[in-house]
Every structure is written in C-alpha cells, then in structure tokens.
Amino acid sequence: MRAKEFITEQNNLPDRITKPMPATWIIPELQNQNAYLQYRFAVALAGAKAARNGDIPKMDKDSVWGENQLVSGYMNPGVADDIDFALGEMGLKGSKVLVTSKDSEETSDTGVNSPIKGFKGYKRR
Asked: Where in the chain are the domains?
C-alpha cells in the first residue's frame, strides 16, 4: 500500500470510516495545539454524567493556574524581574500574577521543632 492511498486531505470522511464508528465527534473549539484545554475537557467529560446527576460538584470553569505559563522562583527569589525582562524580550505585553506567598514558608500545620536532641557536629537551633 502506498502512503498516498491512506494519507489524504479531505473535507468529509468516506462511508468505510464513518459507518463503523458510532457517535464520533470533532470539537472545533478544542484545538489540538492546546494540551491544557484538552486535559480540562477530558476531566470535565469524565465527570459529566455524575455532575449532571448532582453526584459530584460541577467543575470550575477556571482554575488558579488557568492555562497560563507557570514560573516558580524556588531557587531564585529575584525571578520576578527576570520574567518581566523575558516578556519584554519577546515583545509581549502583560503582567504576571503571584498566586502563592512570595517566600517559601512552612504551613501552620508543619512542625518546626525537632524532638531529636542535637548531637556533636549537628547543632539544633
């Protein structure tokens, strides 16, 4: 079989494909190049029946992360300036939104005092 026999551009599918494939849909608003949107759709689709029946809560339309680029300054607390510079280098206008605390902090339920007594070569604070 030659590639031109099975790789073709066409506006509609032939019966040999459409008849054996029941209820197959394309979704023009869900473009292939947006993997995050596809992921969110897959999660919504997986829970659609249960959400319609009220068995689970409906999915939020937006998440904190959105479908936006995420940059964490875990090892570089000055990354905010780098983000602004990089956006400018690409000719992009816009802003960044801080969605966490600026510094790395322990949560209130994290124990910060060790029950282990300090030993030689390892002092406790």
From this structure: 7-68
